[in-house]
UniProtKB/TrEMBL annotation:
PROSITE patterns: BPL_LPL_CATALYTIC. It is an enzyme of class 6 (ligase). It comes from the Bacteria. It comes from Candidatus Dehalogenimonas loeffleri. This is biotin--[biotin carboxyl-carrier protein] ligase. Its EC number is 6.3.4.15.
Length: 257
C-alpha cells in the first residue's frame, strides 16, 4: 500500500491544474477543520487536505467517523457561487462514485443524502460545510472512504459496513483513487451543469422507490421516497397521502418496492 505523505500525494496529483495547494498529514483531528482554518488564512480554491488517519473525523449531525490507517480522509476547500454550493453534495457523490468504479471496478450506489453504498453496505460518506471569511463564502467538501480495511474491522457491523478491499478482494491503490476523485470533481465543478449533475445523481440514488423512515428534528415520517428536487431535498409520500419535503435528516431504508 502506497504511503500517504506529501511527496506521494503531490506526485499522484501532478498535472491536476485545478489543485492549487496540497496539505498532507500523518494524523489530524479532522481534515475538515484543517481546511476551514486554511480558508481563514486565505488559502486558494481547490486546496486539498489529506491525512493518513483522523482522530476526530466527523459525519453529519456531529457524529464521529472512524478513519484508521487504510482509509481515505480528504477535504477540498472551495469558494463556490450560490448555485454551485447547492450542488456540492451531489457533485462530490458523483465524483467519488465514478472514481471508485475506475480504481476498484466496483459499482457504487448513493443513499440520500450523502452515503456511499456497495451492495447495500456503507463504504463511505460525504459532508459539506460552508461559511464566510471576510464576506467571502467558502465551502469544504469532506470525503471519508473505507479503502484497504480488512473484514475484521467490520466483524460486528458486517451487515451495514464494508470496504473497497473487502468488496474487490484486493488492495486498492488509494493514490489512484485520490487522483480519480480530484479529476472527476474538477470536471463537474469547472464544467458546471446543474441539470446534468442532478440527473446523474438522481439515477444513482437507491433511496428512491423505497419505503423509508425519516427522522428530521423531532419529527418521524414513514412512507415512500418518491423523488428528489433540484435543491437535493427528498420528497416522501406518507401513508396518509401527504407529501413531505425533507431538507435534512436521517433516512433509513425499509425495503425496495
Amino acid at each position: 500500500m502506497a504511503e500517504i505523505n506529501q511527496t506521494n500525494v503531490e506526485r499522484a496529483l501532478g498535472g491536476c491544474r485545478w489543485v492549487q495547494h496540497i496539505l498532507t498529514y500523518d494524523n489530524v483531528n479532522s481534515t475538515m477543520d484543517v481546511a476551514r482554518e486554511a480558508a481563514t488564512s486565505g488559502a486558494p480554491e481547490a486546496t486539498v487536505v489529506m491525512a493518513a488517519c483522523q482522530s476526530r473525523g466527523r459525519g453529519r449531525l456531529a457524529r464521529s467517523w472512524s478513519s484508521p490507517e487504510g482509509s481515505l480522509s480528504l477535504s477540498i476547500l472551495l469558494y463556490p457561487s450560490e448555485d454551485k454550493l447547492q450542488s456540492l453534495t451531489m457533485m462530490a457523490g458523483l465524483a467519488v462514485a465514478r472514481a471508485i468504479s475506475d480504481a476498484a471496478l466496483i459499482q457504487v450506489d448513493l443513499k440520500w443524502p450523502n452515503d456511499l453504498l456497495i451492495r447495500g453496505r456503507k463504504v463511505g460518506g460525504i459532508l459539506v460545510e460552508s461559511g464566510y471569511v471576510e464576506g467571502r463564502q467558502f465551502a469544504v467538501i469532506g470525503i471519508g472512504i473505507n479503502v484497504n480495511l480488512d473484514a475484521m474491522k467490520f466483524a460486528e457491523i458486517a451487515d451495514i459496513a464494508t470496504s473497497l478491499s473487502v468488496e474487490s478482494g484486493a488492495e486498492v491503490d488509494v493514490l489512484k483513487l485520490l487522483r480519480g476523485i480530484i479529476v472527476e470533481a474538477e470536471a463537474l465543478y469547472v464544467n458546471f451543469n446543474s441539470q446534468g449533475i442532478y440527473n446523474e445523481w438522481r439515477q444513482r440514488l437507491v433511496t428512491l422507490g423505497c419505503r423509508v423512515t425519516a427522522v428530521t428534528g423531532k419529527a418521524i415520517i414513514e412512507g415512500l421516497a418518491e423523488d428528489v428536487k433540484m435543491d437535493g431535498s427528498l420528497i416522501i409520500r406518507s401513508d396518509d397521502g401527504r407529501s413531505h419535503n425533507i431538507i435534512a435528516g436521517d433516512v433509513m431504508l425499509r425495503h425496495v418496492s
